[in-house]
Protein backbone atom coordinates (compact mmCIF):
# COMPACT_ATOMS: atom_id res chain seq x y z
CA UNK A 1 0.00 0.00 0.00
CA UNK A 2 1.36 3.42 -0.99
CA UNK A 3 0.91 6.37 1.37
CA UNK A 4 -0.71 9.59 0.16
CA UNK A 5 2.72 11.24 0.11
CA UNK A 6 4.14 8.29 -1.80
CA UNK A 7 1.36 8.55 -4.40
CA UNK A 8 2.07 12.28 -4.78
CA UNK A 9 5.80 11.65 -5.24
CA UNK A 10 5.09 9.03 -7.89
CA UNK A 11 2.80 11.38 -9.84
CA UNK A 12 5.19 14.33 -9.62
CA UNK A 13 8.17 12.28 -10.82
CA UNK A 14 6.15 10.67 -13.62
CA UNK A 15 4.68 14.00 -14.77
CA UNK A 16 8.11 15.63 -14.87
CA UNK A 17 9.81 12.89 -16.87
CA UNK A 18 6.84 12.07 -19.13
CA UNK A 19 5.94 15.61 -20.21
CA UNK A 20 7.91 18.20 -18.25
CA UNK A 21 4.61 19.02 -16.46
CA UNK A 22 3.02 20.00 -19.82
CA UNK A 23 -0.70 19.16 -19.69
CA UNK A 24 -1.05 19.83 -23.43
CA UNK A 25 1.84 17.59 -24.52
CA UNK A 26 1.12 15.26 -27.45
CA UNK A 27 3.78 12.91 -28.79
CA UNK A 28 3.03 11.37 -32.18
CA UNK A 29 4.34 7.84 -32.70
CA UNK A 30 5.34 6.28 -36.03
CA UNK A 31 2.37 3.88 -35.92
CA UNK A 32 -0.09 6.80 -35.76
CA UNK A 33 -0.80 6.50 -32.05
CA UNK A 34 -0.29 9.38 -29.65
CA UNK A 35 0.90 9.83 -26.08
CA UNK A 36 -1.25 12.46 -24.41
CA UNK A 37 -1.14 14.97 -21.60
CA UNK A 38 0.94 15.40 -18.49
CA UNK A 39 1.40 11.62 -18.03
CA UNK A 40 1.70 10.86 -21.78
CA UNK A 41 -1.11 8.29 -21.80
CA UNK A 42 -1.09 6.19 -24.96
CA UNK A 43 -3.93 6.00 -27.45
CA UNK A 44 -2.88 2.43 -28.28
CA UNK A 45 -4.82 1.15 -25.28
CA UNK A 46 -6.11 3.83 -22.94
CA UNK A 47 -7.95 6.58 -24.84
CA UNK A 48 -9.68 7.16 -28.18
CA UNK A 49 -8.20 9.25 -30.96
CA UNK A 50 -8.67 8.77 -34.69
CA UNK A 51 -7.70 5.08 -34.59
CA UNK A 52 -10.81 2.89 -34.93
CA UNK A 53 -11.11 -0.25 -32.79
CA UNK A 54 -8.49 0.81 -30.21
CA UNK A 55 -9.32 -0.61 -26.75
CA UNK A 56 -10.03 2.77 -24.99
CA UNK A 57 -9.82 1.27 -21.48
CA UNK A 58 -10.24 4.70 -19.85
CA UNK A 59 -13.46 5.34 -21.84
CA UNK A 60 -12.48 8.88 -22.89
CA UNK A 61 -11.11 10.80 -25.82
CA UNK A 62 -7.37 11.42 -25.82
CA UNK A 63 -8.11 15.15 -26.10
CA UNK A 64 -9.76 14.92 -22.64
CA UNK A 65 -6.26 14.19 -21.28
CA UNK A 66 -4.95 17.57 -22.47
CA UNK A 67 -7.06 19.63 -20.09
CA UNK A 68 -5.21 21.60 -17.38
CA UNK A 69 -7.97 20.35 -15.05
CA UNK A 70 -6.37 16.98 -14.34
CA UNK A 71 -9.52 15.14 -13.21
CA UNK A 72 -9.86 12.91 -16.32
CA UNK A 73 -6.11 12.40 -16.53
CA UNK A 74 -5.87 11.27 -12.91
CA UNK A 75 -8.88 8.95 -13.31
CA UNK A 76 -7.28 7.33 -16.36
CA UNK A 77 -3.84 7.11 -14.70
CA UNK A 78 -5.44 5.40 -11.70
CA UNK A 79 -7.05 2.82 -14.03
CA UNK A 80 -3.66 2.18 -15.63
CA UNK A 81 -1.95 1.67 -12.27
CA UNK A 82 -4.61 -0.92 -11.34
CA UNK A 83 -3.66 -3.03 -14.37
CA UNK A 84 -1.17 -5.91 -13.89
CA UNK A 85 1.80 -3.96 -15.30
CA UNK A 86 0.79 -0.87 -13.29
CA UNK A 87 3.29 1.97 -13.40
CA UNK A 88 5.47 -0.21 -15.61
CA UNK A 89 3.38 0.89 -18.59
CA UNK A 90 5.31 4.16 -18.45
CA UNK A 91 8.85 4.11 -19.80
CA UNK A 92 9.48 7.39 -17.93
CA UNK A 93 8.59 5.65 -14.67
CA UNK A 94 10.79 2.63 -15.34
CA UNK A 95 13.83 4.71 -16.36
CA UNK A 96 13.64 7.71 -14.04
CA UNK A 97 11.43 7.07 -11.00
CA UNK A 98 11.18 3.38 -10.14
CA UNK A 99 13.42 2.38 -7.26
CA UNK A 100 14.65 5.96 -6.75
CA UNK A 101 14.43 8.14 -3.64
CA UNK A 102 11.64 10.52 -4.67
CA UNK A 103 11.59 12.63 -1.51
CA UNK A 104 13.71 15.37 -3.16
CA UNK A 105 10.63 16.22 -5.27
CA UNK A 106 8.95 17.70 -2.20
CA UNK A 107 12.00 18.91 -0.30
CA UNK A 108 11.06 22.20 1.35
CA UNK A 109 7.32 21.59 1.08
CA UNK A 110 5.34 21.83 4.31
CA UNK A 111 2.90 18.91 4.59
TrEMBL record:
- Protein name as annotated: Sperm acrosome membrane-associated protein 3
Q: Which domain of life is it from?
A: Eukaryota
Q: Where in the cell is it found?
A: Cytoplasmic vesicle, Secretory vesicle, Acrosome membrane
Describe the task this protein carries out: Sperm surface membrane protein that may be involved in sperm-egg plasma membrane adhesion and fusion during fertilization. It could be a potential receptor for the egg oligosaccharide residue N-acetylglucosamine, which is present in the extracellular matrix over the egg plasma membrane. The processed form has no detectable bacteriolytic activity in vitro.
Q: What are the alphabetically sorted keywords of the record?
A: Disulfide bond, Signal
InterPro entries referenced in this protein's UniProt entry, alphabetically: Glyco_hydro_22 (IPR001916), Glyco_hydro_22_CS (IPR019799), Glyco_hydro_22_lys (IPR000974), Lysozyme-like_dom_sf (IPR023346)
Q: Which GO terms describe its cellular component?
A: acrosomal membrane; sperm flagellum
User: Residue span of the signal peptide, if any?
Assistant: 1-20
Q: Which SMART domains match?
A: LYZ1
Main location as per UniProt: membrane
Assigned protein family: Belongs to the glycosyl hydrolase 22 family.
Enumerate the spans annotated as Glycosyl hydrolases family 22 (GH22) domain. 58-76
**Membrane topology according to the record:** Single-pass type II membrane protein
Give GO terms for biological process.
Answer: fusion of sperm to egg plasma membrane involved in single fertilization
SUPFAM superfamilies, A to Z: Lysozyme-like
Its quaternary structure? Interacts with ASTL.
Pfam families given in the database record = Lys
For this UniProt entry, the molecular function terms from Gene Ontology, in alphabetical order, are: lysozyme activity
